[in-house]
Design brief:
Number of domains: 2
Distance between the termini: 13 Å
Mean pLDDT: 88
Radius of gyration: 24 Å
Helix content: 10-25%
Largest sheet: 6 strands, mixed
Strand content: 35-45%
Number of helices: 8
Bound molecules: adenosine-5'-triphosphate
Low-confidence stretches: 5-13
Shape: globular
Strand order of the largest sheet: 8-9-10-4-11-12
CATH topology of the largest domain: Rossmann fold
Length: about 375
Amino acid sequence: MLLKRNAGDSSPVEKGPAYVQLENVSKSFATAKAVSQLTVCITKGDFFSLLGPSGCGKTTTLRLIAGLDRPDEGRISISGEPVAAENTWVQPEKRGIGIVFQDYALFPHMTVAQNVAFGLKGYQREKAKERVAQLLELTGLIGLGERYTHELSGGQRQRVALARSLAPSPQVVLLDEPFSNLDADLREELRGETKRILKEQGTTAILVTHDQEEAFSLSDKVGVLNKGSLEQEGTPAEIYHHPCSKFVADFVGKADFIIGEIKNNTVSSAFGTFPLPSDQLRGTGQVELMVRPDDVLFNLDATGESTITEARFLGASVLYRLQFGNGPSIHAIRPSTEIYPVGARVRVKLDARHIVIFPNSCTRA
Ligand code: ATP
């Protein structure tokens, strides 16, 4: 019999004061339940990512926070004040929120400076000019203020969108997949710059993305959404190393699942036996082990029981597929300075520290 994991479960999430809070928020459309009983707490100044597959409710959640849609039930608060609840509704423009949309939604008939100044309606002319100049400097757009948006590159447009969202000094910025239209190099550069700018301003940021690498590289905390509900929340390392479900394990990074057996406080599998980690399932019985490629060690050994059946060159690293006899296979990652031939026999060792044990879903009642 197997017992559930103990308090080590999915690692406790340290929480500061909640700045943006959703409590049991639901939203349905005619044909779909987009968000279901969603509860999330986002700390002031954090960079928080909502991560999940297409259709899991990320954009709907962002729109609910922004006030572009109204929840069917539940409560949304910003800075301790309810902005959407049963008898409360604060208009989007009163919520102190800036938004960067996926397509940037810039005004084509306005110059860069006019776009950035758009949210500065209450400002005196001189003050607005000063603020625009500040933002153009902050976002690396000095000298481009008089251009129209069709005269800009994709990366420059993204910066204008960010500058425009930050102009009225919002406490929260919502980013809806703002890097997805950029090529890989530029995406990388702008991710870093966006984070730097938001941190410099002390702005709380909520990013929507289906890209795990993006969420991990930018975020203080990540919330993984599945079918409109929060499956897990934690730091990138917590989510990666201690996924609370197979859904999370599979969605964030490459993972193989192999059958294991727990007996006498040890776990055995085709790829070796190791002591049962104290924070994992306890008892006796068949389980599934989540093994990440970075937790698989191997060395060439003519008497080894596994064979390299595939090698995928990824640039800085090579992803190998290792097959145990005619049995299961797992993946291992190695720097591309170490090259091993396909067909070679190897001896495999699992680094047990990061292996996560799940009940065997094939045999579960
Ligand atoms: P993606 O990554 O593809 O943008 P998402 O996680 O942002 O997806 P949402 O856009 O929030 O997902 O959509 C969640 C669900 O709600 C989907 O099934 C979608 O079809 C549905 N949905 C979203 N907006 C509407 C709408 N205005 N009318 C009807 N259904 C909608």
